[in-house]
Design a protein that fits this description.
The chain is of the alpha/beta class. The chain has one domain: Vaccinia Virus protein VP39 (Rossmann fold, 3-Layer(aba) Sandwich), CATH 3.40.50.150. The protein has 7 helices and 7 strands, in the order αααβαβαββαβαββ. A 7-stranded mixed β-sheet has the order 3-2-1-4-5-7-6, sandwiched between helices. Strand 4, helix 6 and strand 5 form a beta-alpha-beta unit. The protein is globular. The mean pLDDT is 96. Bound molecules: S-adenosylmethionine.
Length: 220
Amino acid sequence: MNNLRQKVQELASEAINNSEPTAWFEVLYASANGDTAQIPWAKLTPHPYLQDWLENHEISTQGKKALVIGCGLGDDAEALAKLGFAVTAFDISPTAIAWCQQRFPESPVNYQVADLLAIPQQWHQAFDFVFECRNIQALPLSVRTAVISSITSVISPSGTLLVITHVRDTETEPSGPPWPLSESELAQLENLGLQKIEATLFLESRETEVKQMRIIYRQL
Ligand SMILES: C[S@@+](CC[C@H](N)C(=O)[O-])C[C@H]1O[C@@H](n2cnc3c(N)ncnc32)[C@H](O)[C@@H]1O
């Protein structure tokens, strides 16, 4: 295990042992001291599966509001803003949000510190396009149902949810982070009223068998 992966595992298990599964993100961002190489998911470019989807679909953005959940260092939010969405992007880590504002000082994105598990009331059913990338899997199974329900709650009637996530083949609890999603966990999104429109499986490496999915849902 490399040093950074080990650090993430240690911070996450300590936070979970203290019953604060989201507490380690701020510790990680703050201890990076502005060095993006210390943030394992930060690639300083929009996620390629988001980029690919945006390039290959007709998307109407005029007058539309988008929400980026757990926005990290902001590259996905910036990509959606460039396309014409009015974007709100939030993260639980104040350091991550300050970092976004520092990286993109002229940005039209409304960057906010907020907790997915305590969504502001005014965001309820407020967004035409919601982007959820690798955040559900970053939180343990103990909060999964609450996280999924919270994500669903911000989509407007007939709005779209784009999810990018690692998936697992069994219902057995995995060791994480990340904790990839099972079929029954993904099904919770449909049980909450979303309709699956499109699903693409990406097999990243045959050796590690890491599987990711990009799934598009529509709020009925
Ligand atoms: C694995 S990273 C993914 C970041 C980004 N979405 C990406 O794919 O590059 C998880 C992000 O979710 C944020 N996060 C974790 N728990 C959160 C919560 N309860 N509310 C909001 N953001 C949260 C973390 O601070 C971190 O930036």
